[in-house]
Design goal:
This protein is about 40% helix and about 15% strand. By secondary structure, the chain is an alpha/beta fold. A hairpin with an 8-residue loop joins strand 17 and strand 18 (about 455).
């Protein structure tokens, strides 16, 4: 079997979904190969960018090898200005790789003004016209070479983000046209979300033979006719990835101890809207498995990809510190208001926690059923700062419960606690169409397409997207105490690279 991860997603670490599928196939004695077409395709584009003659592109081309090396050896992370220069120059080569076309490619996104990734007809069009895809020369040669050497019966394609959809279907179209005898299977978190909204039917006709939703290990093994070994699921396998090309100062191991969210009650949460169940691996087993993986692979960083790392897993990590630094998303809870607990996290290897604060207005948090109180947020931020653990805070403006006055309370809260916040992710609310928040609201089309997961709406407090966007740019980002935090945001890679600034400097920003 051949597993493919298509462009574009952040090219800083291997995909956890493919790693878990690889582990399951290996444990069940099934031959397979893996192509991370995302990182390979990005390198192919930046190495083959046409010369436009402008100074920026010429400088980016000249400095390409130096910029890549500065990210991979960690030198770029010792100075934010140096880091931004390296990243923006690398990204420049992607931006100008398609001159005169309607396609915009960056290190983290793929946008086609003529085709929508949430329109099934456009996805089918991309598949039928695969030779028009910017990555066509790359993936056609890559796949022809490997398919000439091995007789694969099945090819699986993992599509997790909208930025991968059009390229993923271009690859599907190429395979279906040139190798019609090969069985094509698709899966990934985006496919799971689409199928949850649209139902069990295959909406892509003859292009795809099978669609797998949710964790794919067992369904894929059954599809391949394997007698599944009973017991604890196999560990993810990372040896199948080429460690060298990823744009990070060392090999990052993504690892999840759970699927779904253990809280699962926020009104705006896509997990709740899609009905995804929470499944937690035994915390002690997960920590021991992760330690074994670290001993085998020697990573520079562990990325816990859980929607929220559970308190039980944190306690297991405190009792069994990892031999490598780690970071992940966490819910604010009473444990984090305990200074001894936070010091234990630091000793366990934790270098940064991502925290979904969302709003600085308690009434908004209560109506969102967020399940946190601002007093605990303050205590958590203070404790993490004292413990030397970085904080990456998520703020969400424009929810149905928020007004302009509520938004200004968020500014006041962030400003008051600015010394204890290292990074901020500021976003405008997108309404999941199946969420409780959608009830009673006048919904407007947000993305044109039958696969859209989100919608716009008439805000009940006259706080629409345009007003929110202006507020963020003028008042929030312009606040003198908040602006320096905003400027620390690593462009494109955001939270995936933020931990390295703490690690490289031996302290939190």
């Amino acid at each position: 079997m051949l597993l493919i991860y298509p462009p574009i997603s952040k090219p800083c670490e291997p995909p956890i979904g493919i790693a878990r599928l690889a582990g399951a196939l290996y444990a069940n004695n099934t031959g397979f190969d893996v192509i991370d077409a995302n990182i390979e395709g990005i390198y192919w584009l930046i190495k083959n960018t046409p010369s436009l003659g402008d100074r920026w592109t010429m400088r980016a081309t000249k400095n390409l090898d130096v910029n890549i090396a500065s990210i991979k050896n960690g030198h770029a992370f010792k100075n934010m200005a140096r880091y931004k220069k390296a990243v923006y120059e690398i990204n420049r080569l992607l931006l100008v790789s398609q001159p005169g076309q309607a396609i915009k490619i960056t290190l983290t996104d793929y946008e086609d003004k003529a085709l929508s990734p949430v329109n099934s007809h456009d996805l089918i069009y991309a598949a039928c016209n695969f030779e028009k895809n910017p990555f066509y020369v790359y993936f056609s040669h890559r796949l022809k070479n490997i398919l000439e050497k091995k007789d694969y019966k099945t090819i699986g394609i993992s599509i997790n983000y909208l930025s991968q959809a059009l390229c993923g279907f271009s690859i599907i179209g190429f395979l279906r046209h040139n190798y019609p005898h090969i069985r094509i299977v698709i899966g990934g978190s985006l496919i799971t979300s689409w199928m949850g909204n649209k139902g069990p039917d295959n909406m892509f006709g003859d292009l795809v033979d099978y669609i797998i939703t949710g964790p794919g290990e067992i369904p894929l093994l059954r599809l391949l006719g394997k007698d599944i070994k009973q017991g604890i699921k196999p560990a993810p396998l990372y040896d199948v990835f080429n460690r060298d090309p990823y744009l990070s100062p060392g090999f990052i191991i993504p690892y999840n101890t759970s699927t779904g969210c253990y809280w699962g009650r926020c009104t705006f949460c896509p997990e709740r809207a899609e009905g995804n169940r929470y499944i937690q691996t035994d915390p002690l087993y997960a920590v021991h498995e992760l330690s074994d993986i670290i001993d085998h692979t020697g990573p520079c960083l562990i990325h816990l990809t859980d929607n929220a790392v559970s308190p039980a897993v944190m306690k297991a990590l405190i009792k069994n510190p990892l031999p490598a630094p780690w970071y992940g998303f966490a819910r604010v809870n009473k444990d984090l208001t305990d200074m001894d607990f936070c010091m234990g996290l630091k000793r366990s290897g934790c270098v940064m926690l991502k925290l979904g604060v969302e709003s600085g207005d308690q009434s908004v948090l209560d109506m969102m059923n967020k399940g946190i109180v601002l007093e605990d947020v303050v205590g958590t931020l203070e404790n993490l700062k004292k413990a030397g653990i970085g904080t990456y805070v998520y703020i969400l403006f424009g929810t149905p419960y928020e007004s302009k006055e509520s938004a200004r309370k968020t500014i006041d809260f962030i400003a008051k606690n600015h010394k204890n916040i290292d990074f901020i992710n500021c976003a405008i609310f997108n309404l999941p169409l199946n969420s409780p928040d959608a009830r009673g609201l006048e919904i407007r089309e947000f993305y044109k397409g039958d696969l859209s997961l989100y919608g716009d709406f008439v805000h009940p407090k006259d706080w629409g997207r345009l007003k929110v966007r202006r507020f963020i740019e003028k008042e929030f980002k312009g606040h003198p105490l908040i602006k320096p935090i905003i400027q620390r945001q690593p462009p494109f890679f955001t939270s995936n690279h933020a931990p390295f600034f703490a690690i490289s400097q031996g302290k939190v920003c």
